[in-house]
Amino acid sequence: MRTTLVWIGLLLVTVAVQAVLLPFIFTPGTKPDILLIIVVACGLLAGKERAIGIGFFAGLLQDFASGNVFGLNTLSKMATGYTAGLFERKVFKESILLPVLAIVLAALFNNVLMQALLFILGYKVAMISTFSYQVLLSLGYNILFCIPVHRLVYRITFGNNSQF
């Protein structure tokens, strides 16, 4: 029960920071997606079942806060969390390189998936925008945030007695 409250608190604080504070710090379209980093770290550290749940609530909160097509972030975060969770038993969880490589792949996967969902829903989408300057700059910001967020998720998942 305590862990569930910690996850809920983390997601609520993160969506508030991401929706309110980060647009003032970063230029439009180039802010980091900290919720995505949390979902990917959760998948790698806690498995696909937990990552799907965290991805659902993180995406739902982001959908409420963003004003985009409702459900787009929810579906993409759930799919990204599930995909990251598939590798939970195959990775060395204490590796510093793991969150960096994982967030690069997950951010690209998430972006392509969101573009594909928009296309399926009938929106005009330029797939070349998947690798635009803004997306690559956001990816760089995600890399900067991924190690501290990964460590935080590690502590939530495995307790405060961890040495990581």
Automatic annotation (TrEMBL):
It is found in: Cell membrane. Its main location: membrane. InterPro entries: Cell_shape_determin_MreD_prd, Cell_shape_determining_MreD. The chain crosses the membrane at residues 96-121, 133-154. Coiled coil: none annotated. It is a multi-pass membrane protein. Belongs to the MreD family. This is Rod shape-determining protein MreD.
